[in-house]
Amino acid sequence: MTAFPPIIDSLGEKNDVPIHLSRASQEIIDLIEFRLPQKGLDETIRGLFPDFLELRLKVGQWIIAGNNLERRSTAVHKKVQELYQSEDEVGQIMAEALDITSAISKIILKQVRSKGAADSGLDIPFHAVEALEQMPNESIRYLAKMIKCSLFFDGLVFVHHLWQTKKLDINLEELSQNIRSTASHYGAYCTIIGLWQPKDEDERQIIRNIKILAAHFRSKMAPGRLYKFEDLEKMAAN
Questions:
Q1: What is the pTM of this model?
Q2: Which of 8, 25, 18, 21 is nearest to 75 (CA)?
Q3: Of 5, 6, 15, 99, which sits with the fewest C-beta atoms within 10 Å of its C-beta?
Q4: Which residue stretches of the chain have pLDDT < 50?
């Protein structure tokens, strides 16, 4: 999860972001702006999952190849602090959600960087994600759910960005509920597959939701092998 367009906007201050990334981001913005009034929030975002995934992979590869992980972290932190100062509730919710999801994505990018971008098992097409969701082992299905959840959050970041910059007409209550729910489920799935664990002392609302959801998912899981992030990389590489 790379939290664009705030990432591309902030990193672009040094004028070294590849033009194809800026163009791809703008194309997605145009599609959301066109489709949202006709299709609604959920259908619009889900219809762009392949586009979000493709852009994420390209941005991630550029960040890793150019050793820009710290610049990315700084850009996200700057955006989070800006949102925490928002007077509107949706901005406050987005700040907390972006803070949490970006901390998780930083862990993912560090793992990818340690292996090299070219060999990354994260370079996985969207049809492969859908195939994982049909696997009989429910722990593998959680991997697919985690990826799809992160893609949905990317879409919410775009929509929120459009609302901020262009005053896009949208139901803010629906947007807020989706931000909180998506970040909570994403964190819970990451907890289940062993990618990240929330701290016991962290009592933010979304973190509390994550702990409750993770406990619920664990109680529903049948006995069997628990696939972790490393397993996803191996499966994607085969």
A1: 0.85
A2: 8
A3: 15
A4: 12, 14, 117-121, 236-238
Percent with pLDDT over 90 in the chain: 45
Tokens representing 180 are 């909180």
- C-beta separation of 53 from 126 below 8 A: yes
